[in-house]
Structure to design on (1173 residues):
């Protein structure tokens, strides 16, 4: 292949000078972004990794079983029971570790399901842009007109609070928000000429969704996944705290707070006892903060906002 | 306060911009001298730095830019040394700015008259009542309809051309010494543009205001400026008084800018008709018809130019042909056979034979696909070419569009404007079509790049026998490459015929208006036109 | 008729339609109860005739549409049915009318919500607007990090921290909000301070972030740059150019966050044992007292819909394109 020679003093397309982005490899890009990450993002990433490790290796890390009952209830903090025991004599520390696995596990499953439902429906609505889009959007509007905690409470009172019910109900309710976001970002892409070019070519719906639209909406979707996870996580914790979420004896941070809430009034006599119910609550808060920091930084990177120099 | 005639002096100005994680040089040592009452035309292609330089003349740098070195002296005052509030006291009082997009520059929540006089009143130059009366006079001078009351309207209630004139009034309100016009007519239709230009020039002459007029359109700058400066890649290429520059440009680059319209196309005999549009009516679902009884015949192997301004329906006609918008009535015949009205009813072959190239190559290509993917997809989709065979054909196509194999793995954001459009052409060619619809494909490109693309299209037509429907609003392009011309206005065909027929008198009324509004490379053109239209109207 | 009136009427119509559909959803909840719920409510020892009488009382033998219409009719005339609690297997019915159960609780919740909103909304707007104006300053960054942290805290965490510090350690406020109809106003306020504070912290964080984002968005408009190029002072740019266009986004932010208030109130009431609607609903859910759950859900949902309707109408009447059509 010969490179076309530049005609003397004339114009050559191949030699057009342009201010283009310098091409970097994928790994290079990742390393550069990590280097410029603020301390909050680093903090977030480290915390998330710790939590994931605990969740995955819970049986190896916990000294006792989550439902294992010991004869001393409300035992103080000691070497055997690092955080004491609860009203039924179960080791709080072990339950804390198992709680990571249970609570995070259910939250992740719910978020994935919400994305599956909301994401695919959102894409379909954005592409079809006809009666189907209208019908779906109106339906979602109505579902979103009921505050989700209230709706969840109502549905749980009817169907009962099992883990599967919990996952399914919250996933459907949260899918509405995922639908709205996916539809909005997909609509921005759908009006682009390259999507019209694909339609003119005769490409099918699946091809357009998979190869034209999806690659271009990943950044906001990834960010939204993080935010939805936080919301789902907090909702499940709240429902468990209210007693209608994850049921005992499964260890779960929300219900652990409720179970031990009575210890708070002993703050002036035994501070550690008062802190016992606070620890699972703090665990919830810490993970959510970490995810929020990471998502915030990710959004800042991808939005490319120009700051004053 | 200096006493001599020089108003603005910029010496060895360097400006840097921040993008892609580091600082680039945008302006690399430019000098400017402007006398009182003089109009300087700043010409250059996109990326030359004209807008940045224009803002720097006010001492202003956009976020992401900084003035690194050099002096900028306005009437003896060094703008770079001023602090924020001192600079602010000059803006809107002694130096004013007219932006490209009038619609975006007005606050939708306030009436036009209040925004017009805002800076005059806030700088204490005149009190409210005086400023209001003065604004009405300015509206009158600028030939705005109903000058007494138009100020009471809101921005969304007036048209683009009117809004641009109100913005000029806004700049004039404080009787500044200098106005920076930043591409003010680029977004306007040809017929609107000529009125706005005329109004601007009249008023700037009346108040003896100095101005820097930034544009990429040579014919326009010839009407407005006393002297012209050509910029390229942030450096001055040439500086000269207008008439001298027009008749005798020195530098090769300037000459190439001037010579763009020199493409000649020999006339060709028509063989047969490849596409026929018969009595088509179309609308977008509301009651107003966008196309009203359109009939067009497209001869094989030739270029049919469809000319019109915004609202003429030319883009809608393209959508009807491709099947994106099924017409309300009428039919389309391709090679003698009726074409199914809706896209989904057409066969793959029918889809293959008609291809489209878009105006904005940026949005016409998926930013996540490489050049190889973009050109390769039609090859595999229509012709079933994969693997080695596909790669070979892609390379052939790249050669055809005058690029080479180094482009294969690039992404669209690593290409220049002209290169992007060439890839889009290659994508259209990959399908081996009989007809290509070019929807304003050169409108978003610089002059020299435009010439390259047009020459390429003509060469491809000669070699491959492709028919083009070339949609454009630019008369000069039509003269250069068309065989047949269709003039459209408000959804109707005004006339259709060969290029010679269309461009010789007598003209239908709209064609007359359209052709006469196109600025020519003659510094006296606007003056003559103003005189002509004044006598015609009197 | 002025086009803006048509838009408003259309929006109102849509709002009431939504309320209608939501009421259908809430009503049909009872359809999904498992068959043996009659026994669950009345107890194992209930005789079949008692269960049957119970079902007939609920009208479960009539067709759904007739039931829905009579339910709506009852609701509109103030009869929300009778609670499931208070019934036993012998058929003796000491159940109370739902509205008598709800009414005092509703009043309390409204009191708490208003107290919170009065403090939270102005505070959040002030913080949000100033943070947007001094974007990327130290102040902005601190406020950003703090609010990002606070919105990540579950409401009960915030509530318990407040109890720990202000109630158990420094005995300033009571941890149990014992209020009733007869409590004098100041006393009520004093006892509701901690719950209101907990709610305020959560809501201010959300609202402030959204306000900041909305104002930053407006600051990036081209007409703001134009105003700067005209030499308008920064203060005037904000007051004169940005604020008139800010009503719609800000009102939407407030409405959206008052919805958080509705939800947060449930958890906070449970923590502080505040006798409000939220706590009533949670108790009813635990005991599967469906009529009470339905009534509470209807009230919460209705409030939320009305708030959004109000926000939409404000957006419409502050839109210059609709106020002054071509």
């Amino acid at each position: 292949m010969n490179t076309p020679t530049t005609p003397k003093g004339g114009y050559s397309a191949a030699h057009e000078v342009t201010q283009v982005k310098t091409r970097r490899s994928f790994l290079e890009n990742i390393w550069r972004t990590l280097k410029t990450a603020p301390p909050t993002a680093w903090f977030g990433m480290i915390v998330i990794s710790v939590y994931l490790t605990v969740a995955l290796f819970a049986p190896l890390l916990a000294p006792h079983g989550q439902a294992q009952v010991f004869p001393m209830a409300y035992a103080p903090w000691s070497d055997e029971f690092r955080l004491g025991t609860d009203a039924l004599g179960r080791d709080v520390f072990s339950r804390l570790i198992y709680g990571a696995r249970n609570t995070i596990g259910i939250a992740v499953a719910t978020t994935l399901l919400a994305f599956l439902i909301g994401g695919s429906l959102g894409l379909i609505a954005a592409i079809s842009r006809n009666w189907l889009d209208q019908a779906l959007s109106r339906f979602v509007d109505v579902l979103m007109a009921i505050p989700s905690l209230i709706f969840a409470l109502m549905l749980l009172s009817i169907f009962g609070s099992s883990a599967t019910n919990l996952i399914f109900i919250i996933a459907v309710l949260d899918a509405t928000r995922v639908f709205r976001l996916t539809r909005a970002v997909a609509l921005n892409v759908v009006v682009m000429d390259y999507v019209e070019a694909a339609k003119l070519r005769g490409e099918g719906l699946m091809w357009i969704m998979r190869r034209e639209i999806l690659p271009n909406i990943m950044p906001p979707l990834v960010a939204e996944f993080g935010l939805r996870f936080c919301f789902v996580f907090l909702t499940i914790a709240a429902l468990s705290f209210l007693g209608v979420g994850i049921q005992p004896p499964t260890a779960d941070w929300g219900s652990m707070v409720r179970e031990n809430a009575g210890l708070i009034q002993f703050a002036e006599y035994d501070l550690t006892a008062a802190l016992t119910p606070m620890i699972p609550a703090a665990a919830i808060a810490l993970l959510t903060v970490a995810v929020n920091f990471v998502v915030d930084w990710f959004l800042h990177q991808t939005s490319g906002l120009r700051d004053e120099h | 306060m200096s006493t001599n005639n020089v108003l603005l002096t910029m010496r060895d100005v360097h400006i840097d911009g921040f993008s892609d994680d580091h600082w680039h040089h945008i302006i690399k040592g430019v000098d400017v001298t402007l006398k009182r009452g003089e109009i300087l035309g700043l010409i250059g292609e996109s990326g030359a730095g004209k807008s940045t330089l224009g803002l720097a003349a006010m001492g202003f740098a956009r976020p992401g830019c900084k003035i690194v070195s050099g002096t900028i002296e306005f009437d003896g005052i060094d703008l770079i040394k001023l602090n924020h509030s001192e600079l602010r006291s000059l803006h809107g009082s002694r130096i004013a700015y007219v932006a490209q997009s009038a619609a975006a520059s007005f606050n939708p929540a306030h009436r036009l008259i209040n925004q017009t006089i805002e800076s005059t009143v806030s700088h204490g130059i005149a009190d409210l009542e005086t400023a209001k009366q003065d604004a009405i006079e300015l509206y009158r001078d600028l030939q705005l309809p109903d000058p007494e009351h138009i100020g009471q309207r809101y921005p969304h209630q007036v048209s683009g051309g009117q809004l641009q004139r109100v913005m000029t009034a806004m700049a004039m309100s404080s009787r500044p010494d200098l106005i920076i016009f930043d591409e003010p007519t680029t977004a306007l239709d040809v017929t609107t543009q000529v009125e706005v230009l005329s109004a601007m020039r009249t008023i700037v002459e009346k108040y003896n205001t100095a101005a820097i007029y930034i544009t990429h359109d040579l014919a326009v700058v010839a009407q407005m400026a006393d002297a012209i400066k050509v910029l390229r890649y942030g450096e001055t290429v040439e500086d000269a008084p207008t008439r001298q520059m027009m008749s005798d440009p020195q530098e090769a680059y300037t000459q190439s800018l001037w010579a763009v319209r020199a493409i000649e196309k020999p006339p060709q005999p028509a063989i047969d008709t490849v596409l026929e549009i018969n009595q088509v009516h179309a609308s977008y679902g509301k009651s107003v018809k966008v196309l009203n009884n359109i009939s067009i015949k497209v001869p094989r192997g030739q270029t049919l130019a469809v000319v019109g301004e915004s609202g003429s329906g030319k883009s809608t006609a393209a959508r009807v042909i491709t099947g994106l918008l099924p017409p309300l009535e009428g039919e389309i015949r391709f090679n003698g056979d009726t074409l199914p009205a809706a896209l989904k009813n057409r066969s793959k072959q029918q889809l293959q034979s008609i291809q489209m190239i878009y105006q904005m190559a940026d949005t016409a290509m998926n930013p996540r696909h490489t050049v190889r993917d973009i050109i390769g997809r039609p090859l595999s989709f229509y012709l079933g070419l994969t693997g080695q065979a596909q790669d070979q054909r892609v390379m052939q196509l790249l050669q055809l569009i005058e690029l080479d194999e180094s482009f294969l793995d690039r992404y669209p954001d690593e290409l220049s404007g002209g290169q992007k459009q060439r890839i889009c052409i290659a994508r259209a060619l990959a399908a081996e079509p009989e007809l290509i619809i070019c929807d304003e494909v050169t409108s978003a490109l610089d002059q020299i790049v435009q010439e390259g693309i047009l020459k390429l299209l003509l060469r491809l037509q000669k070699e491959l026998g492709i028919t083009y429907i070339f949609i454009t609003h630019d008369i000069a392009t039509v003269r250069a490459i068309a065989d047949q011309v269709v003039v459209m206005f408000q959804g109707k065909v005004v006339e259709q015929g060969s290029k010679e027929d269309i461009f010789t008198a007598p003209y239908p009324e709209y064609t007359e208006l359209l052709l006469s509004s196109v600025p020519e490379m003659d510094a006296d053109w606007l003056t003559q036109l103003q005189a002509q239209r004044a006598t015609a109207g009197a | 008729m002025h086009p803006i009136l048509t838009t408003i009427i259309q929006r109102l119509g849509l709002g009431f339609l939504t309320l209608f559909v939501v009421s259908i959803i809430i009503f049909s909840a009872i359809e999904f109860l498992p068959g043996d719920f009659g026994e669950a409510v009345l107890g194992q020892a209930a005789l079949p005739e008692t269960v049957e009488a119970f079902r007939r009382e609920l009208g479960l033998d009539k067709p759904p549409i007739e039931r829905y219409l009579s339910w709506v009719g009852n609701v509109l005339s103030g009869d929300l049915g009778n609670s499931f609690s208070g019934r036993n297997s012998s058929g003796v019915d000491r159940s109370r009318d739902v509205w008598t159960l709800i009414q005092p609780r509703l009043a309390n919740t409204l009191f708490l919500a208003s107290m919170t909103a009065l403090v939270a909304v102005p505070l959040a707007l002030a913080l949000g607007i100033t943070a947007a104006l001094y974007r990327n300053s130290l102040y902005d960054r601190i406020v950003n990090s703090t609010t990002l942290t606070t919105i990540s805290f579950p409401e009960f965490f915030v509530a318990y921290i407040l109890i720990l510090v202000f109630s158990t350690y420094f005995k300033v406020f009571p941890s149990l909000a014992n209020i009733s109809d007869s409590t004098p106003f100041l006393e009520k306020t004093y006892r509701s301070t901690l719950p209101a504070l907990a709610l305020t912290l959560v809501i201010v964080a959300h609202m402030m972030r959204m306000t900041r984002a909305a104002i930053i968005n407006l600051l990036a408009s081209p007409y703001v740059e134009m105003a700067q190029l005209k030499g308008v002072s920064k203060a005037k740019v904000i007051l004169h150019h940005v604020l008139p266009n800010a009503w719609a986004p800000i009102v939407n932010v407030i409405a959206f966050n008052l919805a958080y208030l509705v939800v947060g109130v449930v958890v906070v009431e449970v923590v502080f044992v505040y006798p409000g609607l939220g706590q009533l609903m949670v108790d009813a859910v635990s005991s599967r007292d469906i009529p009470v759950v339905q009534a509470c859900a209807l009230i919460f949902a209705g409030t939320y819909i009305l708030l959004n309707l109000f926000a939409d109408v404000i957006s419409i009447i502050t839109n210059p394109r609709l106020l002054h059509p071509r």
